[in-house]
Recover the amino acids of this structure.
């Protein structure tokens, strides 16, 4: 779906950046490791929310994300908001506020509908209930050991694109790197499936960055050298961290397509 959105593929170099960050990241491996789950709907909602040029369609995306996964939607909104505010800095305060309201309102509605549906099934619970009954010693004992793998897993070779090119000189790139690092450090404290939750929560801010950032056209890695990065991204194993344990997926996620 991201590759079908004109706002994300408006130029060849922007398309290369999208390919680099999505292909090198964990999203494909996450989807293929959770076939039959609800993550596909979450990704569809996230993509529509930040890449649709129509406001109603964008609101539908936020609502779908919240209806499908309420806590993830609100977390994704919090991570997305600083980047959105930065790119909207040229707008008057009223326009910036309305933009946030148009995204937060469908999230609120989606969360309420999800709560009503789940409560009617008798399975209503919350993250607080889970934290109260958590064995903290068992849960946190491997946190520091797993943290480097969690950080790497959220972008993979995409870290090279953001740090190793002239993109790193821009404020929005450094802001994105800060948001990703904070997500990698903080979200595993409230989620067992670290890479899955963090990568899904980061998708809106990642796609917003791809959509609006100014991309240098003379950078070798995003120009003539991109074919080498593309090969590296395909061949480099994708690291996923679930429950503090690390799994490495190389070509396996490609084979599952067939």
């Amino acid at each position: 779906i991201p590759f079908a959105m004109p706002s994300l593929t408006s130029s060849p170099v922007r398309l290369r950046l999208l390919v680099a960050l999505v292909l090198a990241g964990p999203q494909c491996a996450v989807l293929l490791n959770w076939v039959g789950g609800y993550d596909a709907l979450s990704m569809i909602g996230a993509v529509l929310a930040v890449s649709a040029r129509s406001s109603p369609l964008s609101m539908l995306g936020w609502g779908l994300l919240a209806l499908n996964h309420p806590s993830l939607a609100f977390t994704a909104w919090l991570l997305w908001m600083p980047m959105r505010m930065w790119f909207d800095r040229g707008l008057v305060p009223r326009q910036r506020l309305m933009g946030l309201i148009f995204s937060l309102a469908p999230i609120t509605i989606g969360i309420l509908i999800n709560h009503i549906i789940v409560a009617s099934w008798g399975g209503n619970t919350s993250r607080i209930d889970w934290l109260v009954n958590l064995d903290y010693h068992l849960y946190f004992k491997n946190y520091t050991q797993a943290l480097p793998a969690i950080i790497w897993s959220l972008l993979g070779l995409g870290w090279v694109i953001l740090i190793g090119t002239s993109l790193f000189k821009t404020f929005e790139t450094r802001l994105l790197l800060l948001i990703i690092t904070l997500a990698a450090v903080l979200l595993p404290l409230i989620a067992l499936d670290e890479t899955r939750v963090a990568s899904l929560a980061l998708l809106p801010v990642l796609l917003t960055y791809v959509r609006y950032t100014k991309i240098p056209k003379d950078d070798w890695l995003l120009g003539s050298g991109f074919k080498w990065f593309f090969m590296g991204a395909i061949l480099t194993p994708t690291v996923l961290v679930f429950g503090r344990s690390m799994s490495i997926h190389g070509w396996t996620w490609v084979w599952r397509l067939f």
Notes: The CA atoms of residues 33 and 238 lie 12 Å apart.
